[in-house]
Amino acid sequence: MTDGLRIRLDRTLCDGFGICARHAPEYFSLDDWGYASLVGNGSVPEKDRDAVMRALLDCPVHAITSMGESRPPEDSAQQPEPTVAPEPHPKSEDNEAFSSFIR
After folding, report:
1. Beta-ladder partners of 5
2. Cβ atoms of residues 11 and 36 within 8 Å
3. Closest by Cα among 90, 68, 93, 83 to 6
4. Average pLDDT, 10 consecutive residues per value, the chain (103 residues)
């Protein structure tokens, strides 16, 4: 079960084709020159996912990117806590650089 899709619009890549606003006008608006702006914070509920994905896939300059889908944890009690291995402490005499520089 997903909470929804997250998208991002890179306005520096947009060439003003306007395809995104045709497919998903609730999420993309066009300025006076036809360049797109993202409406909202980029969260897309499941009911609008198909229209937004069509806009993403049809963008000729790939200005729209998917940030993934947020998913609630299935059962956080079953997932073990990640452990981090301790960083080894190297001996200093093994790491000294030798130089032939003479003063």
Report:
1. 44, 69
2. yes
3. 68
4. 79 94 95 94 93 95 86 60 69 58 59
Q: What total number of domains does the chain contain?
A: 1
For residue 40, the domain's CATH number is: 3.30.70.20
Are 51 and 23 spatial neighbours (Cβ–Cβ below 8 Å)?
A: yes
Would you state the pLDDT for residue 71?
58
Asked whether residue 80 is assigned to any structural domain, the reply reads: no
Q: How far apart are CA 28 and CA 19, in angstroms?
A: 9
- Residue 36's Cβ-count burial label (10 Å; 0-12, 13-18, 19+) is buried
How high is the pLDDT of residue 1?
Answer: 41
Q: Which domain holds residue 10?
A: 6-67
